């Protein structure tokens, strides 16, 4: 990579964003240790993103290094106008989608990905957690049915609506940052997220009505 002269940070750049910008500038000046720090800082987050797209640990192990190689080669294009992770997220996603296209595999989104990382990992009967009175078979069955309905509803969303929801709910990106990643106006981002949420809500409400009807029919049959 061609060494670049140090640049001045954008006005108002502070905190973590300023640290990342400085690490980028040190890397461009030939300090390879600085880029290693960026890799250490964001590798876990990038690999979580890749797992959501690729769905296989082996594929993540292959694509994760490629992501950071691509980022290193394109580092001179980072201007600090968006957060470093926003810029890196776009490279990671593009690298993963390219890998999928090469392997001709479908993208599958799991409903549990809409939960925060700590919540998604909190199993109903995880070690150290005692069952509560709410952990009845009926409640657990209802939760599984809801998860299945949500997963199906997500799969039925248009790709751009689903991806916008993921970036907002999973990655916690702002509307402006999502616009950078998806290369579209902020208004389009807002529209996609609104339509995606509305479609999910409508689908889940319909599922609730159907489930309720089935439950009433079963109770009536049991009472005979």
Fold and architecture overview:
This protein is mostly helical and 224 residues long. The chain has nine helices and no strands. The radius of gyration is 22 Å and the shape is globular. It starts with 14 loop residues before the first helix and ends with a helix.
Any descriptors?
224 residues; mainly alpha; 0% strand
SSE arrangement:
Elements: H1 15-28, H2 32-54, H3 57-73, H4 84-103, H5 117-120, H6 137-156, H7 159-169, H8 175-182, H9 186-223
Distance between the termini: 78 Å
- Proportion of residues in helical segments: 55-70%
Main structural class? mainly alpha
- Overall body shape: globular
Order of helices and strands: HHHHHHHHH
Instruction: Characterize the largest beta sheet: strand count, sense, and whether it forms a barrel.
Output: none
Quick structural overview:
This protein has helices at 15-28, 32-54, 57-73, 84-103, 117-120, 137-156, 159-169, 175-182, 186-223. It is an all-alpha fold.
